[in-house]
Amino acid sequence: MFEKVLVANRGEIAVRVMAACEELGIETVAVYSDADRNAGHVEYADDAYNVGPAPASESYLDQTAILDVAERAGVDAIHPGYGFLAENAEFATRVEETDGLTWVGPPSDAMETLGEKTKARTVMQDAGVPVVPGTTDLVDEPEEVRELGAEYGYPIAIKAEGGGGGRGMKIVRSEAEVAEALKSAKREGEAYFGNDSVYVEKYLEAPKHVEVQVLADEHGNVRHLGERDCSLQRRHQKVIEEAPSPALDAELRTEIGAAARRGVSEAGYTNAGTVEFLVEDEEFYFMEVNTRIQVEHTVTEVVTGIDIVRWQLRVAAGERLDFTQDDVSIDGHAVEYRINAENPAEDFAPTPGPLTTYAPPSSIGVRLDHAVSQGDDIGGDYDSMIAKLIVAGEDREHCLDRSRRALDHFTVEGVHTTIPFHRLMLDDDTFRAGTHTTKYLDQELANEALDEAVARWGTDEVGGDASAASTDEIAVEVDGKRFDVVVTDGLPRVARDGNASGGSGSGASGGSSSGGGTVDVTTSGAITAEMQGTILSTEVAPGDDIAAGDVVCVLEAMKMENDVVASTGGTVASVPVAEGDSVDMGDTLVVLEE
Q1: Which of 207, 302, 368, 504 has its CA 20 to 30 A from that of 246?
Q2: DSSP per residue over 548-568, as a string?
Q3: What percentage of the chain exceeds 90 in pLDDT?
Q4: 227-247 confidence digits (pLDDT tens)
């Protein structure tokens, strides 16, 4: 077994991996950005090293910096968690090729094969797994997409080859939408995954999203751990996941589990992974393989009693799976609720800010995966997740009833959260019946219901001073390594917050956005950023005449793409930002002529 593992991630998943390491007697090393100096995963680790500034591209995605820390810290394995470099085959290869280092994940060649969606479709077809009708070749020109639309019939989906979680996927319902959708999908693929290649497949109108957890060792043993239902989504982002799926009967459950095992065996896959399917009219179709641990692995652990992260480490160390497929059984039901810093009444817009109150629930049947505490800032540099609440019950009905109790006792103030949305779902007839599809939230749930849920169950306390809840313990760095220092006589405000004016130490800003998927803000002849983020594209140039509602640029914030639109018309005088620029809330994006 390994002696020391570097966890190349942050937040709750980094802590989850470190917990598994701790139980196995393995020391842990954290990496962190400037924005995460006092983050929970940094506190949990045995050692911690700074890898760069707040932007992920300069820290958590900096392969060379992370490998340098691995050498300096003397680790013998790297666990990537999920997101960031977890599905980056190039990084996995670099780890594999470094003497004395082990990659805790599937081999890089299997990652490359299954991470590129067209290759994965070919592998699954060879293994006899049903796939959604579509291409196994990449497309590059609008005319190619139009030809496929004519062949398959609209709607079709343009998908980023390296994509996942709905990012880099655009739905096209007519020929007129092809050019813009192709451009957007390629742009998102490049921005999120460093790969602008796309492919096309038929778009299913009302499917269930069902995924199968697999584990495979290096000795030819492949097991599946049952399925999860991830059908409750907004803009293709999962918000509630559960195991087992209420949509499958025993026969379909057996078929889909066997198909997942065949597919990963065909690819020569080892370690943990997830095979995702779309289920419609009692038929299932392969969608993609996630070559990593999933956010929602928790519900599978609860209903099977199998520690998936622990097995990731054991498999990477060369151990055999010590259980057969027949040994895997499902006991009860579990649901995971993603507690995000988002305002459901504002199209789930991210709401970075301080956790002035953070009091999660406990008691029987409740698990909490998190890396925050009261007084922490939820910044705008990364995703908006605060915690994952996992609730277990004897069956689905019992689990949902217990969830109501748990959510009722989950108190968060300082930021808006998705808790009101989750409580709404527990009173929703469609969700309670388990008949919801991936389209339910976007097409059928009324905005008025979300407004009422936030008014009823949301917080009135948004913003505030997180430093009031902080302690007099600070982090200092010596040659890039982090050390904790306790100051007994108290700290001046500049030391706590990192600036003399008392701003947020992590670059976060309180308050909520006014738009979610579209941000509308024009003040004093200038269009300004409503939230912190990165400019993905600018859509106007000096001299252009624009009208109210026109998109002037696209801003990525908390892993969500937002169209910035003008609230008034005018002539563009200047555009002081460019693609790739990082902006803070209030920064000027476009200046209009007086």
Answers
A1: 368
A2: TT-EEEEEEETTEEEEEE-SS
A3: 71
A4: 999 999 998 889 999 999 999
Residue 167's closest CA among 177, 155, 175, 158? 158
- Is residue 490 packed enough to be buried (19+ CB in 10 Å), middle (13-18) or exposed (0-12)? exposed
Question: Which pair of tokens denotes residue 573?
Answer: 């005088």
Would you tell me how many other CB atoms lie within 10 Å of the CB of residue 286?
Answer: 23
d(CA 19, CA 13): 10
Q: How far apart are the first and last CA of the chain?
A: 68
Which is it for the CA torsion 240, 396, 360, 370, positive or negative?
negative
- 532, 352 contact by CB (below 8 A): yes
Tokens 């800003």 locate to 509
The pLDDT value given to residue 559: 57
DSSP type of residue 2: -
Q: Which amino acid is at 589?
A: L
Four-point Cα dihedral 579, 585, 590, 594, nearest 10: -170
Cβ atoms within 10 Å of 151's Cβ, excluding its own: 12
Q: Nearest to residue 578, comparing CAs of 551, 544, 541, 538?
A: 538
Q: Do you find a cis peptide bond into 155, omega within 30 degrees of 0?
A: yes
Q: Which tokens is 140 given? A: 């590059």
- Peptide bond before residue 244 is cis, with ω within 30 degrees of 0: yes
- Residues 246-274: b if buried by 16+ CB within 10 A, e if exposed: bbbeeebbeebbebbbbbbebbebbbbbb
pLDDT higher than 70, residue 74? yes
**480 closest CA partner among 29, 19, 14:** 29
Q: At what angle do helices 89-96 and 63-73 cross, to 10 degrees?
A: 30
Of 188, 183, 157, the closest CA to residue 170 belongs to 157
269 within 8 A of 261, measured Cβ to Cβ? no
Q: Which residue, 259, 298, 288, 290, is CA-closest to 274?
A: 290
pLDDT of 514 reads: 34
pLDDT digits (tens, 9 = 90+) for 134-156: 887 899 999 999 999 999 889 99
Q: Which tokens sit at 50?
A: 């700074």
Q: Do residues 170 and 181 make contact, with C-beta atoms less than 8 angstroms apart?
A: yes
Return the HEC string of 508-540.
CCCCCCCCCCEEECEECCEEECCCCEEEEEECC
Q: Is the dihedral of CA 216, 217, 218, 222 positive or negative?
A: negative
Strands (E), 457-500: 473-478, 481-486
Per-residue pLDDT averaged across 273-293, rounded? Answer: 94
Q: Is 286 helix (H, G, I), strand (E, B) or coil?
A: strand
- How far is residue 386 CA from its own chain's centroid? 12
